[in-house]
C-alpha cells in the first residue's frame, strides 16, 4: 500500500496481490506502483478521464502503464522527449517525459531517395500519429502525474492475435513430451497409442479429424489426420493441392504423404498428413476419399504430383474435375535419365517451361525429336501423349498459383528431419508432426505481424496504383505485382475497338512483334487477356496493367483482385465456426504459456525438497488437471473416451518389385528406369540443362 486513505469496505475486498493499485478517495486519483498493479485495472475500458486521474510512483511505472494500455488497444509505444532540471545540484534529473505511439513522426525524405541503395527500403511505419501521454514529476508528493494525454490515432490498430508482444515471448522448440511416451498404458500397441493421442488432442482442438483402415489381420493399414487449422487453411487456399510420398520417417518405413498448398505469403501450408502401408492405387483412392470427406466435399481446381501411376489413377477417380499437373522437376530428371542428350534437354526445357503458343510448341517439339531421331523412343511418345499435363502451352488458363513442382513437398520433408527421426514409432511421429505444424504456423503468424506493420516504399512512377496494391496484397505478392507494374511502361496500345459488349485493346511490348488481346467490359469493370496469366496465377498480367495505365486508372478493379492473395484473406476466426468461446490470440497464448512455465518450474523445485510436500502437490495437481480436462470437454462438446479399439501395429513397408525394405519401387535397382544408364553422361546432360537457356522461372512477365 502507498499510504493513501482507502474506504474500509474497499480495503477488505481488495486482493493482496493487487494492493499496489490504490484509489485516493478524496482526490479520486488512482495510484499505480508498477506492473503488479495492473491486475486491478481494466485497460480496455479506460477513458481519458481515467488516465488523467492516474498517478505513478515512478517514471518506469508510468511507461509500463502506457505500454500495457497500448498492448490492449493494439499499438506499440516508444519513449520520446524528456525535460531535466537545470538548477545546480540537480542537473540531468528528469522532471517530465513524453511516451508516444511508435508510429509518430515521418521518415526523413533523404533516406527514401538514396541512389546507392542495394536493398529495398524498410517498410514505412511512421505516419504522423499524434497519440501520446506526458507525465510530470510532483515535488510535493514524489509521484508522477499525467499532464497531457491524447488518444487520437490516424492508423488502424493491430489485430488481437498480435497483441502478445513477440519480443517478450520466451518459447523454444522443445520435445517436451518424451517422458509421457514412457508412461503409456502397459499392453497398448503403438497403433493404439497413436490413435489415443489423436483422441486426446480433441480436448484442445474440437476440429481434429482422423480416419484409419485395417487389414484382414487387424493391423493398421492407412492413417490420415488433420486439425482444425489445416481445414480452415484448405477452405481458403485449397484451390491448389500438391502431394508427394516419402519413405523413412518412421520405424515401419511406411510412406508418408503430406497434402500441401500455397498461402497468401507464398509460403507452404499443410492441409493434412497420412501414413500408408503401400503406394497402391487402392491406398491412394482410400486416402483421397478420406481427404475429400474431411474437407466437406470441396475439390481442388488443380493437383500437382510427381507422376506416379497409382497417384494419377487415384486423382482421376476422386478428383475428376481437377486438372492434374506433373512435377516439372521430376520430368526434367526423367528426361535426363531417359535421353541424356544436352541438345534435346535444352529444347525440352523450353517446351516444358516456355511461354509458347500451342502451334509454337508443336513446331519446336517436332523439330527437336526429329533432330535427335527419337521418333520411336517409348518415353518420348508417352510424354507427347501426356502434354496436357506438363506443357505450359497446353496448361495455360488452368489455375496453379505458380505451383509447378512438388519441391514444396520435398522441402517439407527436409524440414521434418529437424523434428522427426527415422526410428520414431507412430505415436511419436504423430506427436512430433503436430509440433512441426505449430512451428510452421508461428512463422506464418510472425509474417502476418511484420506485413501488417508498415507499408512498402513506392519505387515506380505509377504511385497511385502501386500504393493501392500495397494496401491490398501481402508483401510477397505485392513484390510480384510491382515487377509487373515496372514492365507496364513497355506496353503500348496498338489499336482499340468498341463492341456492344466490351472494348477490345490490341497491345504489344516495346520492340516486340507479338501482340495480345485485352478486353474490358466497361459496365461490369471486368478485364481478360489472351495470355490468360490472370486465370493461371491470379495476378493481373502486364498487358492488363498496361491497359489500366492507358485508361488512367488509379486502383485495381475488384475483378482482378483474387481473394487468396489479399492481406485480409485469413481473418481471425469468429466463434460461429465452432472455435473456443473466448479464444485467446496466439501471441497472448504464448506469452501466458511462458509465464506459466516459470511458475511451474519454481513449484517443482520447492515441492521436491520434502516428500510430504511432493505427495501433496502431486495429488492436487492431478485433481486440477482432471478438472481442467473436464472443463475443456464441456466447453468443446467432446464426448467421453470410447472403449479401446484393438489395433495391431502395421507391417514394415517393402518394395513391390524386389520385396526388400528401405526403398520404394521408383528407386529400386530392378526398375527399368535405372537400367543401362550411363551415369556420367546423364549427370553431364543434367548440368548442361541447368545452365541452358530459359531457366526455371516460376513467374515470367512477357
Automatic annotation (TrEMBL):
Coiled-coil residue spans: none
InterPro entries xrefs: FAR1_DNA_bnd_dom, MULE_transposase_dom, Znf_SWIM
Pfam families in UniProt: FAR1, MULE, SWIM
Keyword tags: Metal-binding, Zinc, Zinc-finger
Domain spans labelled SWIM-type: 516-552
GO molecular function: zinc ion binding
Record has Heme as a keyword: no
Cited PANTHER family: OS01G0519700 PROTEIN, PROTEIN FAR1-RELATED SEQUENCE 5-LIKE
Entry protein name: SWIM-type domain-containing protein
Amino acid at each position: 500500500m502507498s499510504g493513501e486513505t482507502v474506504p474500509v469496505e474497499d480495503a477488505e475486498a481488495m486482493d493482496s496481490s493487487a494492493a499496489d493499485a490504490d484509489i485516493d478517495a478524496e482526490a479520486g486519483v488512482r495510484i499505480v506502483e508498477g506492473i503488479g498493479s495492473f491486475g486491478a485495472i481494466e485497460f480496455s475500458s479506460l477513458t481519458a478521464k481515467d488516465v488523467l486521474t492516474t498517478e505513478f510512483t515512478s517514471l518506469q511505472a508510468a511507461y509500463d502503464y502506457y505500454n500495457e494500455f497500448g498492448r490492449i488497444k493494439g499499438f506499440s509505444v516508444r519513449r520520446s522527449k524528456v525535460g531535466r532540471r537545470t538548477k545546480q545540484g540537480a542537473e540531468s534529473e528528469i522532471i517530465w517525459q513524453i511516451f508516444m505511439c511508435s508510429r509518430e513522426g515521418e521518415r526523413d525524405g533523404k533516406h527514401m531517395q538514396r541512389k546507392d541503395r542495394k536493398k529495398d527500403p524498410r517498410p514505412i511505419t511512421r505516419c504522423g500519429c499524434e497519440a501520446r501521454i506526458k507525465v510530470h514529476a510532483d515535488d510535493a508528493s514524489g509521484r508522477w502525474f499525467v499532464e497531457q494525454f491524447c488518444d487520437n490515432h490516424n492508423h488502424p490498430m493491430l489485430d488481437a492475435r498480435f497483441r502478445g508482444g513477440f519480443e517478450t515471448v520466451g518459447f523454444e522448440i522443445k520435445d517436451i513430451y518424451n517422458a509421457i511416451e514412457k508412461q503409456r498404458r502397459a499392453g497398448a500397441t503403438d497403433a493404439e497409442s497413436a490413435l489415443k493421442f489423436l483422441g486426446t488432442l480433441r480436448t484442445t482442438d474440437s476440429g481434429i479429424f482422423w480416419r484409419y483402415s485395417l487389414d484382414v489381420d487387424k493391423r493398421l493399414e492407412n492413417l490420415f489426420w488433420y486439425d482444425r487449422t489445416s481445414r480452415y487453411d484448405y477452405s481458403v487456399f485449397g484451390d491448389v493441392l500438391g502431394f508427394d510420398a516419402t519413405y523413412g520417417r518412421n520405424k515401419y518405413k511406411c510412406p508418408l504423404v503430406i497434402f500441401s498448398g500455397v498461402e497468401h505469403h507464398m509460403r507452404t501450408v499443410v492441409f493434412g498428413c497420412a501414413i500408408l502401408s503401400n503406394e497402391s492405387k487402392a491406398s491412394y483412392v482410400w486416402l483421397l476419399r478420406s481427404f475429400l470427406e474431411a474437407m466437406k466435399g470441396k475439390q481442388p481446381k488443380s493437383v500437382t504430383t510427381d507422376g506416379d501411376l497409382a497417384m494419377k489413377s487415384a486423382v482421376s477417380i476422386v478428383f475428376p474435375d481437377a486438372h492434374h499437373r506433373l512435377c516439372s522437376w521430376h520430368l526434367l530428371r526423367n528426361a535426363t535419365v531417359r535421353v541424356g542428350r544436352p541438345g534435346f534437354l535444352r529444347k525440352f526445357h523450353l517446351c516444358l517451361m516456355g511461354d509458347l503458343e500451342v502451334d509454337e510448341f508443336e513446331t519446336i517439339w517436332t523439330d527437336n525429336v526429329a533432330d535427335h531421331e527419337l521418333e520411336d523412343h517409348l518415353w518420348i511418345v508417352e510424354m507427347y501423349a501426356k502434354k496436357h499435363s506438363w506443357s505450359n502451352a497446353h496448361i495455360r488458363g488452368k489455375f496453379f498459383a505458380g505451383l509447378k513442382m512438388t519441391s514444396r513437398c520435398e522441402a517439407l520433408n527436409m524440414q521434418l528431419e529437424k523434428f522427426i527421426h527415422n526410428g520414431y514409432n507412430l505415436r511419436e511421429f504423430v506427436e512430433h508432426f503436430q509440433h512441426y505444424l505449430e512451428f510452421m504456423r508461428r512463422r506464418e503468424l510472425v509474417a502476418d505481424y511484420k506485413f501488417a506493420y508498415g507499408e512498402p516504399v513506392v519505387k515506380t512512377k505509377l504511385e497511385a496504383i502501386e500504393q493501392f496494391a500495397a494496401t491490398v496484397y501481402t508483401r510477397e505478392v505485392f513484390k510480384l505485382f510491382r515487377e509487373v507494374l515496372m514492365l507496364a511502361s513497355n506496353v503500348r496500345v496498338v489499336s482499340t475497338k468498341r463492341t456492344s459488349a466490351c472494348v477490345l485493346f490490341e497491345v504489344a511490348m516495346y520492340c516486340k512483334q507479338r501482340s495480345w488481346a485485352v478486353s474490358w467490359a466497361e459496365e461490369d469493370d471486368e478485364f481478360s487477356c489472351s495470355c490468360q496469366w490472370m486465370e493461371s496465377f491470379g495476378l493481373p498480367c502486364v498487358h492488363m496493367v498496361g491497359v489500366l495505365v492507358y485508361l488512367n486508372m488509379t486502383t485495381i478493379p475488384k475483378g482482378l483482385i483474387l481473394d487468396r492473395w489479399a492481406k485480409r484473406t485469413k481473418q481471425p476466426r469468429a466463434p460461429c465456426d465452432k472455435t473456443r468461446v473466448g479464444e485467446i490470440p496466439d501471441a497472448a497464448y504464448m506469452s501466458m504459456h511462458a509465464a506459466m512455465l516459470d511458475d511451474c518450474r519454481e513449484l517443482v523445485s520447492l515441492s521436491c525438497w520434502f516428500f510430504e510436500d511432493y505427495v501433496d502437490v502431486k495429488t492436487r495437481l492431478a485433481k486440477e488437471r482432471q478438472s481442467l480436462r473436464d472443463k475443456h470437454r464441456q466447453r468443446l462438446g467432446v464426448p467421453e473416451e470410447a472403449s479401446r479399439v484393438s489395433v495391431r501395429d502395421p507391417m514394415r513397408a517393402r518394395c513391390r518389385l524386389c520385396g526388400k525394405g528401405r526403398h520404394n519401387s521408383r528407386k529400386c535397382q530392378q526398375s527399368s528406369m535405372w537400367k543401362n544408364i550411363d551415369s556420367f553422361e546423364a549427370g553431364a546432360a543434367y548440368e548442361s540443362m541447368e545452365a541452358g537457356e530459359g531457366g526455371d522461372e516460376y513467374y515470367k512477365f512477357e
